[in-house]
Amino acid sequence: MSYLCKDTLKTIKKNTIETRIDKELDLLNQLSYPFIDRRVSDRRVSDRRKANLKKITILIPCYNEEKGIGKVIDDVPCEKLAHLGYQTEIIVINNNSTDNTIKIAYEKGYKVVSEKKQGKGNAIRAGFKSVSNDTDYVVMLDGDNTYKAKEIPRFIEPLENDFCDIIVGSRLEGKLNGDSLSFSHRVANWFFTFLTRRLYLVNTTDICTGYFAWKKEVIDELAPHIKSDGFGIEAEMITKMARLGFKIFSVPITYDKREGNSKLSPYLDGLKIIWILLKNITWRPKGKVNKTFNLSWRFKNYPDTIKKHNLDLET
């Protein structure tokens, strides 16, 4: 069964019909005087785009999000992404929901993956395992309708142009609607982000966000190192992605008040985030040279300097 967005399938079908029309127009052109047929040109561009469609997999972790999940799915701009040259697959990760979250996802015809171990971190790991090998980019956002799925194209553009490896959606630099983010949460987030920028040299402005986009190869390398079960998962991902040497940048996003009840425990989750930020300062992946903190990387273009100072390339 195909779980691609219906608008994506519609666009592919349309392009198939246009290919047949192209052949008919080519025959007519051979029998007529030379002229620029814009219809043929436009259709051939469309056909080339179809042949080179890249795939975006959208992960939506959910725990009792019946009020928001339908809106999030409907807001995914599948048709726009298809016209930009992307096919889209949506995967809903159900984390023991007891309401109608699963029913709504199934009714809309999308794939549902269940994770029995409670916690957002467990749900995200299950989502990572469900990403197909033919995926080029992975996007993740929450199912409570706080983040706007229609903003996904802005996440993909910097990845497509190889500007960076990861895009983080920043609420603090974006548009906060109403009382979507309380003053105390804003101050705490500023503090966590300040620590992250200073300790990890990461160019991000919101480390508690739930809106991410990655190149697929980042997920392949990151997933085995993720251990958090709960809401400290975002801080762990950002700090470990920094230690793995990936390029991380932020884009401003819209943030709305959530649909349904919050699952956050502000004080407990805040302490977990601080602990993760301090603990991961000394974390290094086994068998991998970190490009940000390794001297051999900083001097790789200066072999004379390395030789002169007898720097050990393996340290």
Radius of gyration computed on alpha carbons: 23 Å
C-alpha geometry: globular
Low-confidence stretches: 27-48, 291-315
The overall average pLDDT, rounded, is: 80
How many helices in DSSP terms?
13
Question: Structural class, from helix and strand content?
Answer: alpha/beta
β-strand number:
7
**Percent of residues in beta strands?**
15-25%
Q: Helix share of residues?
A: 40-55%
| N- and C-termini, Cα separation | 50 Å
Biggest sheet, spatial arrangement of strands: 3-2-1-4-6-5-7
Subunit arrangement of the protein? single chain
Query: Topology as H/E string?
Result: HHEHHEHEHEHEHEHHEHHH
What composes the largest sheet?
7 strands, mixed
Descriptors for this entry?
315 residues; alpha/beta; 13 helices; 7 strands; 44% helix; 16% strand; disordered C terminus
Descriptive report:
The chain has 315 residues and is of the alpha/beta class. The chain contains 13 helices and 7 strands. It has a 7-stranded mixed beta sheet with strand order 3-2-1-4-6-5-7, sandwiched between helices. Helix 1 crosses helix 2 and helix 8 (183-200) runs parallel beside helix 11 (266-279).
